[in-house]
């Protein structure tokens, strides 16, 4: 990949679903048009892009439909790894089309392709012994315990709102389709891949992969992709335009720039970044910077262009 200016852009769920009143496919495609505009700006500036995306709400929709259809019509339920594959295809199509259209209107000749990708995890990862990621709809305790007993689910009470299935969130180790992604990038193609962190698979022996019921953190997998590609830039698009310390407190303060040592220290202090939102993003940035590949930015979709010019976002340097 030498000689190419590669950026990995990780798109958060807010680029797809802005609020609970705009969740339809049409709403999501409309939201992606704004992101496509920002991505096209990067293409126009000479970047070769690998774009990743979240899929949490979309997997939840599929999983919930599957549960309802199973109860009402007796249809088979869709395994979690296949739900992930479904969303990679659907969201990849939506983003691919939005970006293709934007590039066409700008007379930029650039192919866009989606790669349905698998992410290898360690079958002995401790996460498999301590499932913690809630998925699917809420259940009462009786139904939750029945699914636990009959279907082998791990279940847990979720913040007083009801019971839900919980699954492991193992550490990503390898992007299985990495070589194919590299070939496409080398040809000048914009690649949409590692959606939702990739479909989690384990090696069951002699290189044979099998999907598992797990959820991989999208930002950690995107960081792995950025390191594996030797990307010059790792950009995470999220709900805020910059990172804040002491989030949600009277002492909250926005940060424009942070180096690797500061990021490590602030994360270790455990009081600045929310466990389920910003902390994994900071951890992903740290992993990327430790590889010495380049710089990272965290910002929101509307400010991607401004952040690249240093006028918005939080810039992370080694």
Main sheet properties: 8 strands, mixed
Uncertain runs are none
- The total of beta strands comes to 17
User: Based on CA inertia axes, which overall geometry fits?
Assistant: globular
Q: Which range does the strand content fall in?
A: 15-25%
Oligomer: single chain
C-alpha end-to-end distance: 21 Å
- CATH fold label of the largest domain: Carbamate kinase
Broad CATH class of the largest domain: Alpha Beta
* CATH architecture assignment of the largest domain: 3-Layer(aba) Sandwich
Q: What structural category do the secondary elements indicate? A: alpha/beta
Report helical residue fraction. Answer: 25-40%
The mean pLDDT is 89
CATH fourth-tier homologous superfamily of the largest domain: Acetylglutamate kinase-like
Order of helices and strands: EHEHHEEEHEEEHEEEHEEEEHHEHE
Walk across the major sheet and give the strand order.
Answer: 3-9-2-1-12-16-17-15
Overall structural domain count: 2
What radius of gyration results from the CA coordinates? 20 Å
Tally of alpha and pi helices: 9
Q: How would you describe the overall organization of this protein?
A:
The chain has 318 residues and is α/β, with parallel strands linked by helices. Helix content is 39%, strand content 24%. The chain is built from 9 helices and 17 strands. The strands form 4 sheets. Strands 3-9-2-1-12-16-17-15 form an 8-stranded mixed β-sheet, with helices on both faces. Strand 1, helix 1 and strand 2 form a beta-alpha-beta unit. It is globular and about 55 Å long. The model has no long low-confidence stretch (mean pLDDT 89).
């Amino acid at each position: 990949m030498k000689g190419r200016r590669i950026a990995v852009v990780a798109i958060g769920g807010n680029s797809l679903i802005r609020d609970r009143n705009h969740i339809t496919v049409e709403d999501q495609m409309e939201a992606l048009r704004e992101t496509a505009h920002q991505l096209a700006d990067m293409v126009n500036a000479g970047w070769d892009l690998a774009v990743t995306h979240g899929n949490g709400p979309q997997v939840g929709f599929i999983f919930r439909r599957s549960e309802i259809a199973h109860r009402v019509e007796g249809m088979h339920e869709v395994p979690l790894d296949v739900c992930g594959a479904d969303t990679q295809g659907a969201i990849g199509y939506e983003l691919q089309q939005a970006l293709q259209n934007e590039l066409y209107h700008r007379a930029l000749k650039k192919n866009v392709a989606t790669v349905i990708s698998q992410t290898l995890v360690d079958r002995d990862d401790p996460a498999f012994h301590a499932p913690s990621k809630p998925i699917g709809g809420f259940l009462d305790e009786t139904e939750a315990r029945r699914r636990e007993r009959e279907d082998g689910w791990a279940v847990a009470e979720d913040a007083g709102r009801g019971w839900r299935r919980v699954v492991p969130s193992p550490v990503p180790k390898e992007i299985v389709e990495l070589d194919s992604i590299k070939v496409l990038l080398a040809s000048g193609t914009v690649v949409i891949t590692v959606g939702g962190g990739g479909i989690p698979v384990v090696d069951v022996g002699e290189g044979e992969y099998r999907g598992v019921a797990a959820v991989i953190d999208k930002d950690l997998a995107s960081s792995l992709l950025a390191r594996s590609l030797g990307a010059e830039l790792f950009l995470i698009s999220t709900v805020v335009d910059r990172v804040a310390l002491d989030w949600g407190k009277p002492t909250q303060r926005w940060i424009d720039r942070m180096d690797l040592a500061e990021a490590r220290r602030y994360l270790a202090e455990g009081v600045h970044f929310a466990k389920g939102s910003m902390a994994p993003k900071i951890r992903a940035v740290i992993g990327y910077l430790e590889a010495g590949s380049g710089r990272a930015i965290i910002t929101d979709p509307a400010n991607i262009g401004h952040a690249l010019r240093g006028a918005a976002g939080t810039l992370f340097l080694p």
